[in-house]
Amino acid sequence: MPRIAYVNGRYVNHSDAMVHVEDRGYQFADGVYEVCEVRHGLIVDLSRHLDRLNRSLGELRIAWPMSRAALIHVIRETLRRNHVRNGLFYLQVTRGVARRDHVFPAEGTPSSIVVTAKSTDPSVIAKKNANGIKAITVRDNRWDRVDIKSVGLLPNALARQQAKEAGAQEAIYIDHNSMVKEGAATNVWIVDTDGNLVTRPAEHGILRGITRTTLMDVAAKLEVTVVERFFSVEEMMAAREVFITAATSICFPVVAIDGQTIANGHPGSVSQKIREAFFDVAEKTAI
Ligand code: PDD
């Protein structure tokens, strides 16, 4: 079955899906994106993802490529055309096409929009949840606006590659005070010695993950206390549990970091409880 992508007004075969060589996303990473999970034919947390898209666009003064309602229609249609029941959609909006110049193009230059969708194998995710994943720590070398979900992901890609070469699946960013920030493409959580869920405050050099926000709703429902505070690498290494969250990896347990085993080396019960309750609590939108 051919994959279909939506590119600037047209649904095209994925293999023919092209953007212009002078698209500012291509030349300057001048764009933003969202990744959103689809489970059992339902889009997870669509409203929150579109609200964050709105914020990212606003921070960079990039115009919406179309109305929110039209974009929802395009997302659904792209998912339908790709027959996605379990998987994700990716959308990217850039400042559009213009002759290469660092300053913004002329007022009215249309933004570019691409939407793609793909199916994922739930058994691969289940295996990661059952076995846990490994991570490494790396010093954060990104710009200081990582609160914007920008497509400028070169440091993140390099960090993930470094993790892979070390036999791990995620790289965890550490700040200059040895405090934990977030993963290359995930937020980081620990269960501390009091049994509280702890994660770094979103105002301090991390992306405010949508999964992170919804997880707080889940924790409230399960009567698990969430504390937003700084925590050190040392505290993480000694935590009862460590796990990471992102739209495509809800609550992956981390069982080893920098070659050191976390707790007893097995996925913990708190992350499991949260993962199991997550889908019920999240907003679900039919395709
Ligand atoms: N990454 N922090 C970073 C740096 C991220 O790139 C992501 C998401 C998150 C988690 O955000 P959310 O819960 O909204 O997915 C945190 C996506 C999945 C990606 O780049 O593929």
UniProtKB/TrEMBL annotation:
Q: Which reaction does it catalyse?
A: L-valine + 2-oxoglutarate = 3-methyl-2-oxobutanoate + L-glutamate; L-isoleucine + 2-oxoglutarate = (S)-3-methyl-2-oxopentanoate + L-glutamate; L-leucine + 2-oxoglutarate = 4-methyl-2-oxopentanoate + L-glutamate
Q: Where is the signal peptide?
A: none
Which one GO biological process term can you cite for this protein? amino acid biosynthetic process
EC numbers listed for it are 2.6.1.42
Tell me the route in metabolism or biology where this protein functions: Amino-acid biosynthesis; L-leucine biosynthesis; L-leucine from 3-methyl-2-oxobutanoate: step 4/4; Amino-acid biosynthesis; L-valine biosynthesis; L-valine from pyruvate: step 4/4; Amino-acid biosynthesis; L-isoleucine biosynthesis; L-isoleucine from 2-oxobutanoate: step 4/4
- Entry cofactors: pyridoxal 5'-phosphate
Which Pfam families does UniProt cross-reference here?
Aminotran_4
Alphabetical UniProt keywords = Amino-acid biosynthesis, Aminotransferase, Branched-chain amino acid biosynthesis, Pyridoxal phosphate, Transferase
GO cellular component entries? cytosol
Q: Name one GO molecular function term.
A: branched-chain-amino-acid transaminase activity
User: What is this protein's function?
Assistant: Acts on leucine, isoleucine and valine.
Query: What family name appears in the similarity comment?
Result: Belongs to the class-IV pyridoxal-phosphate-dependent aminotransferase family.
NCBIfam families, per this entry? PRK06680.1
Q: What is this protein called?
A: Probable branched-chain-amino-acid aminotransferase
Species classification: Bacteria, Pseudomonadati, Pseudomonadota, Alphaproteobacteria, Hyphomicrobiales
